[in-house]
Amino acid sequence: MCCSSSRNRREKERGEQMALRLPTQLSTPRHLQHRPGLSWRRALSPDAFASSHSSPLAASFRNGKSRVQQAVTCTAQAPSAVNMAPGTPVRPTSILVVGATGTLGRQIVRRALDEGYDVRCLVRPRPAPADFLRDWGATVVNADLSKPESIPATLVGIHTVIDCATGRPEEPIKTVDWEGKVALIQCAKAMGIQKYVFFSIHNCDRHPEVPLMEIKYCTEKFLKDTGLNHITIRLCGFMQGLIGQYAVPILEENSVWGTDAPTRIAYMDTQDIARLTFIALRKENLNGKLLTFAGPRAWTTQEVIALCERLAGQDANVTTVPVSILRLTRQLTRLFEWTNDVADRLAFSEVLTSDTVFSVPMTETYDLLGVDSKDIVTLEMYLQDYFSNILKKLKDLKAQSKQSDIFF
């Protein structure tokens, strides 16, 4: 324990020394925010301006004045960061997982530990510490992507960064997903990180009207321009997210919220995503590649709800929200400065109305990774396992309750 504490202290001191030598734009978020080379917005071109009048989301108002909503596009250019690492060899098994407490991040951590990696987790300072990560065997370091000066110390002795992070719902999207990611990538370049894995969103290059998707696409390009060895993995959707959204409300006989959108999503188990990620990480021929992971089948909201109803053995109390209402809500929230962040997140309503299919054929990817498609969990299998386990537990609890009912 003494040796471990001493090593951690030395790494922290080394990180602080490196922070002093990093480019000055990393010193504060304010410097990063106002650098013209790191903008992810641009003025509308004449053609875009002309076409904007036909868009229902083009016109909005701020402070009582008419304003045209600008297309979100990336103008970021990677700085010429100098590799300031002293050249001390690091173990190829040393990885830093950013966003380790999230739905995907925790599966990345567990898979990495199971495969023998030395895992360090970057976690924001929080009232409830991420003790479960330590219990699994990972090292936890506190840092915040919105505070670039806190990043360098977390990268000392790291070979590979796996970036699963995204901003919290209450935060402005650009704070973590753009400004924070730019700072993290710059630090990784400056400190000689050997490989960077970035998780993005499928079709992000096709929807510049959605801020989060455009930022993901911008970050992809920024990472590529740095020259870092990297793999970008675009994802379609997580099966785990369907539990709280549909399965639990149905079991508890609460309202299930859905839309009438025709959008189809090929959900994937995050355990499968983690497994495929480490297979890709070990293949040197995939450096610089863009991969997309998708589940075996794409599902509409209505189909997912119907599947949950069948497996739960009960009907859902479905409240359908027309996509047109979401679009109108986004227009209204654009009227006020203090609701702009809400409007940015409601921008996904534009994707829902576009009849987009979030899926890709996986045959080529399976061949690249040497994976059998039969080993990939289907949504039917995942939800069947969930409902079987939860219904069995509910049955056992009910039986125990009856046994403990003693009347005098």
Automatic annotation (TrEMBL):
UniProt keyword annotations, A-Z: Photosynthesis, Photosystem II, Plastid
Highest taxon in the source lineage: Eukaryota
Keyword Transmembrane: no
Keyword Plastid: yes
InterPro entries noted in UniProt: HCF244-like, NAD(P)-bd_dom_sf, NmrA-like
GO biological process: photosynthesis
One annotated Gene Ontology cellular component of this protein: plastid
Subcellular location(s) per record: Plastid
Limits of the NmrA-like domain: 94-343
A Pfam family hit: NmrA
Protein's recorded name: NmrA-like domain-containing protein
